[in-house]
Amino acid sequence: MKKLLFITGGSKGIGRATVETFLANGYHVVNFSRSALDLEGVTQIRVDMSNLTWVEDCSDQVTKLAESAESICVIHNAAVLYKDSVRDLDALRLQQVLQLNVIAALQLNQLLLPSMKGGSSIIYVGSTLSEKAVAGSCSYVTSKHAVVGLMRSTAQDLAGSGIHTTCVCPGFTDTEMLREHLGHDQTILDAIAGGVTQGRLIQPQEIADTLWFASQNAVINGAVLHANLGQIEH
Question: Which molecular function terms from Gene Ontology are attached (predicted)?
């Protein structure tokens, strides 16, 4: 296996579109998620990354896979989105969100870095909410701001390694997670689309294509790359 993609949350939405894109470009894919991904060329590792000790269940398997690769791309895509506020966010809930959205990425990096050669990449999936906020999503906003900080630290700490990193920040993307968060209310979805200069939601494949670009272009090392169709600011 010369080229390997390690991706979290690759079974749905942006993650699945990204898996299909990398497969089409000659990568073998290792997917970390609770839901299985039934595609040829994918090694499925079923773990619950919201558990602090998830690494213990798969470290030997992951290390063995990584050691055989000439080039590795890591995409930190898994995330959870809750409705909560600074007024009522429970500390334990925030801890759980940070574990999946931020800490699990650090854990996976530390597991893979000893096997990553020059030309490899670590790509974080942030959000339009990585650099601003909306009401009612306190834990998600906090975690996605932290993702940008982790990416920037990654760029600095890996200087000279030949490994590059980027944080791709999607805008409102037509995924199951977004629709569930909005209660499948088409009126709200239409209003969100109306707040974008292109007048529509982003398709998961568009973000997958952006992640592919980021993984192949070391020139954007340490960069925050917004992919949001041009949001209308008020």
Answer: oxidoreductase activity
Residue 90 confidence (pLDDT) above 70 = yes
Sign of the alpha-carbon torsion through 34, 134, 190, 201: negative
Q: Which two tokens stand for residue 168?
A: 């791709």
Topology given in CATH for the domain delimited by 3-173+204-227 = Rossmann fold (3.40.50)
Q: What is the DSSP letter of 26?
A: T
Q: 95-118, pLDDT tens digit by residue?
A: 999 999 999 999 999 999 999 999
Whose tokens are 């390997």? That residue is 4
pLDDT one-digit tens code per residue, 160-188: 999 999 999 998 887 777 777 667 778 87
The structural domains of the chain, with segments of one domain joined by +, span 3-173+204-227
The predicted pLDDT at position 1 comes to 63
Q: Is 203 left (phi over 0), alpha (psi -120 to 50) or beta?
A: beta
Q: Examine the pLDDT at 30 and tell me if it is beyond 80.
A: yes
- CB neighbour class for 179 (10 Å; exposed up to 12, middle 13-18, buried from 19): middle
CA distance 144 to 147: 5
CB 147 within 8 Å of CB 102:
yes
What's the rounded Cα separation, in Å, for the pair 145 and 92? 19
